[in-house]
Amino acid sequence: MTPDDAPEILLRLRAELAAAGDPERAAGARAYMKSAMPCHGVSAVPQRAIFRRLLAEVALPSAEGWRSLVLHLWRSAEYREERYAALFLAGDRRAAAFQTMDALPLYEELIVTGAWWDYVDDVATHRLPVLVRRHPAEMRLEMLAWSAGEDMWKRRASILCQLPLKARADLDLLFHCIEPSLGSKEFFLRKAIGWALRQHAYTRPDEIVAWVRANAARLSPLSKREALRVLLKSGSVDAIP
After folding, report:
1. Sequence-separated (6 or more) residues with CB below 8 Å from residue 165
2. Does the pLDDT value for residue 128 go beyond 80?
3. Exposed, middle or buried: residue 214 (CB in 10 Å: 0-12, 13-18, 19+)?
4. SS3 string of the chain?
5. pLDDT for the residue 241
6. Considering only CA atoms, which of 96, 155, 101 is closest in space to residue 124?
7. Can you list the domains of the chain with their CATH numbers?
8. For residue range 52-98, what is the model confidence (pLDDT) as tens digits?
C-alpha cells in the first residue's frame, strides 16, 4: 500500500481497533479525556502493536506522501485512537529524513485542531524537538511567534518544544517562550511552565534556579512548585517565596 490508499488504510485501522476495543474502557477513556470524539477502548500497548503492524505495510516514498497520509488519518478519524495512529505515523522512523521545516505546518495543524494535552504534548515533546535541533535559527523565530500568539496550545507547545534536549536546550529561548504566558491563569500554560523548568533543572539547575528566583513574583504558585519540586525534594535548593 501507498499513501494513495489512505481511505483503505484508515478503514483497516478502524476495524482492527474496533475488534480490540473494550466498551467499558472506551467509556472511561472518553470521560477521562473529556473527548467529544468517541474511543475504541484500546490501551496504549495494543494500540501501538496495531499501528506498527498495519503502517509497516505502507510505503513512504516521499515527504509529501507521508504528510498527506498523516493528515488523512487525522482529519478523517472518527475515534480518538485513530488520531493516535496519525501521531504514530508522524514519528515513523522511515520519516526521519522528512523531519524538516516543511513538516512544521503539519504539526501546527495537529496542535491547533487537536487542542488537548495528549495530542499537543506528543507533538511538542517528540516532533518539535527534532526540528529545533536541526533548524535552530528558523525554529527559534517560529517558537517565539507561537509563544506570543493567541492560540493557547501553540503557546504550550513552544514552552515544551525543548523538553528532551537536556544540556543542548537553548534556555534563552525557553525563557523567552515562557515570558508571554507568565500572567496567564490558564492551567495548561502554568503547568507547562513548571514542567519545562523542572525538566531542564535536571541538567541546568543553577540557571533554572537563578531564573526562578528572578521571576518568583511573576510565576504562579503552580509553576513555581512544579519547577522546583525535584530540587526541593533533594535538598539542592531552599524554597523560594
Report:
1. 129, 132, 133
2. yes
3. exposed
4. CCHHHHHHHHHHHHHHHHHHCCHHHHHHHHHHHCCCCCCCCCCHHHHHHHHHHHHCCCCCCCHHHHHHHHHHHHHHCCCHHHHHHHHHHHCCHHHHHHCCHHHHHHHHHHHHHHCCHHHHHHHHHHHHHHHHHHCHHHHHHHHHHHHCCCCHHHHHHHHHCCHHHHHHCCHHHHHHHHHHHCCCCCHHHHHHHHHHHHHHHCCCHHHHHHHHHHCCCCCCHHHHHHHHHHHHHHCCCCCCC
5. 64
6. 155
7. 1-96 (1.25.10.90), 99-241 (1.25.10.90)
8. 999 999 999 999 999 999 999 999 999 999 999 999 999 999 999 99
Q: Residue 92: what residue type?
A: D
